[in-house]
From TrEMBL:
It is found in: Cell membrane. This is ABC transporter permease. It holds the Pfam family OppC_N. It is a multi-pass membrane protein. The chain crosses the membrane at residues 32-54, 108-131, 143-162, 174-195, 226-247, 284-302. One of its GO terms (cellular component) is plasma membrane. It comes from Yoonia rhodophyticola. Residues 103-302 form the ABC transmembrane type-1 domain. One of its GO terms (biological process) is transmembrane transport. Keywords: Cell membrane, Membrane, Transmembrane, Transmembrane helix, Transport. Its main location: membrane. It comes from the Bacteria. Belongs to the binding-protein-dependent transport system permease family.
Length: 316
């Protein structure tokens, strides 16, 4: 070995695991497209209202029922306006402003509910996998919750706790807390099962047995040795949980059990547009596309993460 090649090997830095994950993730075209769309829709609903500047709740009866700009291509007599490129509803409210506002709420509910579900699932999964005496009790409880019908359970929760929470925290904050809590406490079970299985496999590995032999406390064992090694399935589960939370919130809003009528979400916009869907199909198309494409992008990201975090695929 020459001095030059030896110096090159010494200068090379060890490969970072997350760099390998990103390199593998980039090969999944659907996941990359999904990531870019999720970034775009997030900027659209967060930064967009600052640029667009139209109040989503502003009523303008003289400017009601404006059609989207593209309708001018098919109907020269269509009522269109560049001031409202997506059109307006039957009360003259700008549809683009409502899509932005509704997306902000829908994504906030989705992210918050997903974090709650992942936290609960990880906590229960780690406890069940590490402490054998808790395993049977926690897994039977998980099976019980899995057996419950999700949507009817959420409907009952909405009917029971909607008015008390609205009175305590206000109409918007109360419903937000109720929806996030309801989705979170009914969506953690799959994460718990995945984490439990991985923890049960990990606690028989040599490095865990060695740490246990020197008297490492259980809390340190879990936080330093187990949790970092189950991060991959948790991340994949989180993406799927985000998609589930967005769909569930949209379903509740579509059924009229979501936020107040003056507080739009994508599901609420769909609910308000169904009555005039035949005459104005775009009012259903815009929020429907937003929900579908956002959920599809998150699912693709989950697929890409699953492949990228799998060492068998990443090593190929």
């Amino acid at each position: 070995m020459t001095d030059a090649s030896l110096a090159t090997e010494v200068a090379e830095k060890p490969r970072n695991q997350w760099w390998d994950v990103w390199a593998q993730f980039r090969t999944h075209k659907g996941a990359v497209a999904g990531l870019f769309f999720l970034i775009f829709i997030t900027l659209f609903v967060t930064v967009g209202p600052l640029i667009w500047g139209i109040d989503p709740g502003k009523l303008d009866i003289r400017n009601k029922d404006v059609r989207p700009i593209y309708m001018a291509i098919f109907d020269s007599g269509a009522k269109v306006s560049w001031a409202n490129p997506m059109g307006t509803d039957n009360l003259g409210r700008d549809i683009m402003a409502n899509i932005m506002q509704g997306g902000r709420i829908s994504l906030a509910v989705g992210w918050t509910a997903m974090i709650l579900a992942v936290f609960l699932g990880t906590l229960i999964g780690v406890l069940a996998g590490y402490f054998k005496r808790l395993d049977g009790l926690l897994m039977r409880f998980t099976d019980l919750v899995l057996a419950l019908p999700l949507l009817p359970l959420l409907l009952v929760m909405m009917l029971l706790f909607r008015d008390p929470l609205r009175a305590a925290f206000g109409p918007e904050n109360g419903i937000f807390i109720l929806i996030v809590t309801g989705i979170g406490i009914t969506s953690w079970m799959q994460t718990a099962r995945i984490v439990r299985g991985d923890v049960m496999a990990l606690k028989e590995r040599e490095f865990v047995l060695a740490a246990r032999s020197i008297g490492t406390p259980a809390r340190r064992m879990i936080t330093r040795h187990l949790l970092p090694n189950v991060l991959s399935p948790i991340m994949v589960s989180a993406t799927l949980g985000l998609a589930t939370a967005i769909i569930t919130e949209s379903a509740l809003s579509f059924l009229g059990l979501g936020f107040p009528s003056d507080f739009p979400t994508w599901g609420k916009i769909l609910f308000d547009s169904v009555d005039r869907m035949t005459a104005f199909p775009e009012r259903v198309i815009w929020p429907g596309l937003a929900i579908s494409l956002t959920v599809l992008s998150v699912n693709y990201i989950g697929d890409g993460l699953r492949d990228a975090l799998d060492p068998r695929i990443r090593g190929q």
